[in-house]
């Protein structure tokens, strides 16, 4: 056997082992989650009506940039917040460069006329992007607590009354709520995104939080103690996920975070693949950037338990698993040929079957989430299997796009904050292709996804040629995943 074959086998084995360890970490979070439900873990809370000083003063920050389609719905919804107006400040942190700025100015005036303390803050120089806007707004914010909502989020009227009572101790810095989705059933793409996010906002967040491991403020639908933000060093725009960065810096300074699974905040999921990809790029590159920035600080802190450091490591490396998945996928075709042409390695491939347990772990992991969010029983299980296969296929299909993001993050390549185009499908903006914020040209990544679809189709052909179908299911999922992304990209171009 040549050195190349040995190299392929070694790389394939190492990555399979890393993915297995990551799965084990997720399994531990699943056990934590189930234990918290069994013990009915609850967080302490106070009665706001008993506070001697009255209701605490709150600032709601709304960071927006060119949100033509959603500003009316956002501000109308914020205007329904049930909280004393004399204890509430609203900051519209508007970095817009298009006509949405004038629209927003009109909606802000309407809320002012209704007696709201609302300020329309506009920056002409977008230094630090979203982080910079939040930081600048914070410098003049009058609230002791800072609630943050992205433009496509619609908190319930009692949202503040549901979250503020959990600041029962001075060391609690953040209350994060669970995202739910207005348009989860809009298409296969939205169903898959909801499936992925539901797992994060149940098992991951609860699993970490229940054992006092580090969790993250998710950029929106959460509320900060102002002093926590300042003590942790304030917002910083040196990563694309400023929320994850500040979360780690705050928890490294012993601030406590609370995740509320039962408090839901509605949001809109991206409905076209270009919008979903832009969101995925920002999240995955930002996570890799945060690994570079915060992993050393995590391990240098002697007050943090070893198990928390391990979970923190996998948390910060979450996006990097896409790199491993992509390499595994690429190597699966040559591994098929190695398997059939070198009988001496049959023992190795028998041992490698063990790593099928990685997939089984994730199957169990997502089934527990599915039962919680969607329902249980035979019919739901059948639906779950179909959705899991679709999710797995599209997630693997995204591995090329997300690998590029991860590599840029780990290598320290800087890029602008990539906004996710919003659509507001519930308010008449139903012509998706007319959204002016969508890119009009097909990307090189999309072309590469089409080529990969053909590459893994060759893998399926090879199975019949060689008479070995050990990789066929995996290759079918890869063909579907990359093909789905490729054709969806073509369909949304005009």
Task: Furnish the topology, listing elements before pairings.
Blueprint: H1 3-38, E1 58-64, H2 71-78, E2 88-94, H3 100-113, E3 117-122, H4 129-140, E4 145-148, E5 153-154, H5 159-163, E6 172-181, H6 188-209, E7 222-225, H7 226-231, H8 242-252, E8 256-267, H9 273-300, H10 306-316, H11 321-341, H12 346-352, H13 356-373, H14 378-397, H15 399-411, H16 444-466, H17 472-491
Parallel strand pairs: 1-2, 1-4, 2-3, 6-8
Antiparallel strand pairs: 4-7, 5-8, 6-7
Helix pairs in contact: 1-6, 1-11, 1-13, 2-3, 6-13, 6-14, 8-9, 9-10, 9-15, 11-15, 11-16, 13-14, 14-17, 16-17
Description:
The chain is α/β, with parallel strands linked by helices and 494 residues long. The protein folds into two domains: 3-34 and 320-491, no CATH class; 56-273, Spore Coat Polysaccharide Biosynthesis Protein SpsA, Chain A. The protein has 17 helices and eight strands. Helix 11 (321-341) packs parallel to helix 16 (444-466) and helix 16 (444-466) packs antiparallel against helix 17 (472-491). The longest helix is centred in the first third of the chain and has 36 residues, at 3-38. The radius of gyration is 24 Å and the shape is globular.
């Amino acid at each position: 056997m040549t050195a190349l074959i040995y190299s392929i086998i070694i790389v394939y084995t190492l990555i399979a082992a890393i993915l297995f360890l990551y799965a084990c970490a997720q399994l531990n979070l699943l056990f934590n989650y189930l234990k918290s439900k069994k013990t009915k873990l609850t967080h302490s809370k106070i009665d706001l009506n008993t506070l001697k000083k009255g209701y605490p003063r709150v600032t709601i920050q709304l960071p927006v940039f060119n949100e033509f389609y959603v500003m009316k719905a956002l501000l109308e919804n914020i205007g329904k917040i049930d909280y004393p107006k004399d204890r509430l400040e609203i900051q519209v942190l508007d970095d817009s460069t298009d006509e949405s700025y004038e629209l927003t100015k009109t909606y802000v005036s309407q809320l002012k006329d209704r007696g709201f303390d609302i300020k329309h803050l506009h920056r002409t120089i977008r230094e630090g992007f979203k982080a910079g806007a939040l930081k600048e707004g914070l410098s003049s914010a009058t609230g002791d607590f800072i609630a943050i909502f992205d433009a496509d989020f619609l908190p319930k009227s009692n949202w503040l009354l549901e979250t503020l009572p959990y600041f029962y101790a001075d060391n609690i810095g953040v209350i994060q709520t669970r995202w739910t989705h207005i348009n989860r059933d809009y298409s296969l793409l939205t169903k898959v995104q909801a499936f992925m996010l539901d797992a994060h906002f149940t098992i991951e967040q609860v699993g970490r939080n229940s054992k006092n491991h580090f969790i993250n403020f998710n950029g929106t639908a959460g509320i900060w103690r102002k002093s926590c933000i300042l003590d942790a060093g304030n917002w910083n725009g040196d990563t694309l996920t400023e929320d994850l960065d500040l979360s780690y810096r705050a928890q490294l300074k012993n601030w406590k975070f609370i995740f509320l699974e039962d408090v839901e905040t509605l949001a809109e999921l991206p409905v076209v693949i270009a919008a979903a990809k832009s969101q995925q790029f920002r999240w995955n590159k930002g996570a890799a950037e945060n690994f570079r920035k915060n992993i050393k600080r995590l391990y240098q802190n002697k007050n943090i338990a070893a198990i928390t450091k391990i979970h923190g490591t996998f948390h910060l490396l979450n996006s990097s698993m896409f790199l491993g998945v992509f390499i595994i996928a690429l190597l699966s075709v040559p591994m098929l040929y190695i398997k059939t042409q070198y009988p001496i390695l049959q023992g190795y491939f028998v041992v490698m079957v063990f790593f099928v347990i990685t997939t089984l772990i994730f199957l169990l992991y997502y089934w527990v989430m599915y039962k919680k969010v969607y329902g249980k029983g035979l019919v739901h299980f059948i639906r779950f299997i179909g959705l899991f296969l679709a999710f797995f296929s599209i997630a693997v299909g995204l591995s090329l796009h997300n690998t590029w993001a991860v590599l840029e993050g780990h290598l320290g390549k800087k890029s602008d904050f990539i906004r996710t185009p919003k659509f507001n499908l519930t308010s008449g903006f139903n012509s998706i292709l007319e959204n002016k914020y969508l890119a009009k040209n097909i990307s090189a990544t999309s072309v590469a996804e089409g080529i990969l679809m053909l590459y893994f189709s060759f893998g399926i052909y090879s199975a019949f040629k060689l008479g070995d179908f050990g990789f066929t299911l995996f290759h079918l999922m890869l063909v579907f995943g990359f093909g789905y992304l490729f054709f969806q990209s073509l369909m949304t171009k005009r």
